[in-house]
Amino acid sequence: MTARARFALWGEDEDHEEERLWALCEEADNLFADPPEPTRRHYELLGCAFEEEPPPALGFLALKPLDRHGDPLWDWYLEDARVLATRPCARDLSRLDVTIEAVRSGHQPAYPQRAALSVGFSLSDIDDRLLGRFRDLAEVLPVEEPGPHPVRLLGCSLHGPLRDVVEGRRRYLAYRHLDALDDAGEVLTQAGNPNIVAWEPSPRGPGLYDLTVHMDPQPSVAARIWPLWRGGRPAVPNLWAPFDPAGRACWLDPAVHHRTGPDRPAGDTYHLDGRHVTDYEGFFCALGEAVNGPGGYFGRCLNGVSDALGGGFGATWPFTLVWHDHETARRCLGVQPLTLRPESFSELLAFLREKRIEVVLA
Description:
This protein is of the alpha+beta class and about 350 residues long.
């Protein structure tokens, strides 16, 4: 990697078997932006038969198209769902037609078409508890999708297939991803999956190009966090503490790319600084630093901690965790009566003890 490069664009070959460097880029313009508010959509659940009276706030929902035998074919998800209206079903007065408002989860088909000869859909909550079944689904007045977010990758030196495309020797490009680099040219974090839509010679130097790509922006807070990692893993603890939950989640992106050193032997004791554990994300930032020092990583969710306990993340299980200033987490974590909420302090303790981590509250 060159010292001037801030980003590296990688892609797969046509057989999707080998990843290759496509470009080194000096800067990215318009990469950071606050995401738009999620689009709330209205859906009609037609011919519903519920297991029990549905609450107005449904939260997370899994809609599963059923085959002719009533077996689920796949899952389709809605988030933050709530009931707007119910009325008797015109075709079957023993059932209801229900209007709901919800956010469609990303990275899935836009609409779950009913399968041929299907008996309808099932409806489940976040714990996969069956709420009911319904016969058909309709989206009310589909809203227009927001346009793509343009980013300019500036001063790019091109390599391999991408140079062939720009110089007219090929047209097809496969999967690609963009890495942000630190000052040493090592991966700081993944920056997204750009779709290249245009290019032109760059004024930054001969043989360089400026690329226009469409991709999801990075959160604005990342523009404040990435500079703290440009010189490598931070040497000062708790640099994540001033950030809100979204910023703390963003802090864990470079942390996972900066794991170093072998696992220490089982039976060690680690000290968790609990002064700033005011939210779920803060717990994982503090846990990572307890085990691996400033900028450390030991999972970003409970499943991630379970993976880390399997080895390769700096500590060998079992071990002792001394949780200092634990009262901060006891007061702050998971106390809101929400349908979908992060784990509470007591639930985190139960998880750690289930994993045979001895927790000492200090």
